[in-house]
Amino acid sequence: MKVGLFVTCLVDLVRPNIGFATLKLLEDAGCEVIVPATQTCCGQPGYNSGAREISQRLARKVLAEFKDCDYVVAPSGSCSGQVKIHYVQDLFRNAAESERIEFEKLSAKWFELSDFLVNVLKLTVLSSEFAAASFPGSITYHDSCAGLREINIKHQPRKLLARSGCNLIEMNDAEKCCGFGGTFSIKLGEISTRMADNKCVNIAVTGADAVIGGDLGCLMNIEGRLRRTGDAKTQVYHFAEVLAGMAK
Fold first, then answer.
1. Which of 22, 126, 194, 200 has its CA 20 to 30 A from that of 34?
2. Which residues contact 125 (CB under 8 A, 6 or more apart)?
3. Do 41 and 58 share a domain, yes or no?
């Protein structure tokens, strides 16, 4: 099985450890992983800002880079939603039939990481290496908006974390936005800050040692606010880092 790994631009530039953790998880599960060296962005920032032509050019680049893979996996619900939903339903809805079909094929074989591990590879029992990677403290989980609402990422990461032996304490309003929202946090900074503060309060109430999520944008926003409000203790990790034993 040839699996393309879409690293995401945020992971590549800010926290490559997530990319290495994703690679480890896929290889440990028996996948032949392909990582195109020329990959960059899925085009979501441009799409959300109305720069459709730029987004389309980046989408065509993504298609060319991963066209020959059996599957494509990304450690991001946000980028995955862009490819699976917005490429097909909007950006290339009125494209020539041949091009639209190619994007439909890309959408069908594209998966967010936890969804791929649970629903494609069907890892009902984790290997001993996975199981040994459980986080030593308690965790709580934040659901990112795009992953949850666009491609139904909810139970998949929780199943994997539970199978690895993690002690998960659910926070209040886990499904509420952290205030990131890409350019939303820049354009509406005061509202974003209040939303992040609410999220930090809910995290603190759980008493968890770490907050875990599936999108680096959310995790950056949450961690930034935790530190600015004086919380230097609560750790912040992507679930891939925890599962791969790379949450150090």
1. 126
2. 163
3. yes
Joined together, the tokens standing for residue 103 give 């994007």
**24 — phi, psi (to 5°)?**
-60, -45
β-strands 235-238, 167-168: how paired?
Answer: unpaired
Closest residue by Cα to residue 183 from 41, 46, 42: 46
Q: What is the pLDDT of residues 148-185, one digit of tens each?
A: 999 999 999 999 999 888 999 999 999 999 998 877 87
Q: SS3 helix, strand, coil % of the chain, rounded to 5?
A: 55, 10, 35
Determine the structural domain holding residue 64 and report its residue range: 2-120
pLDDT in tens, 175-194: 999 998 877 877 877 898 99
Query: CATH number for the domain including 225?
Result: 3.40.50.1860
Query: Strand order in 110-112's β-sheet?
Result: 32-34, 2-5, 71-74, 110-112
- Count: domains in the chain: 2
Among 64, 20, 74, smallest CA distance to 38 is for: 64
What letter does residue 51 receive in the DSSP assignment?
A: -
pLDDT tops 80 at residue 130 = no
Q: Could you tell me if 74 and 165 lie in one domain? A: no
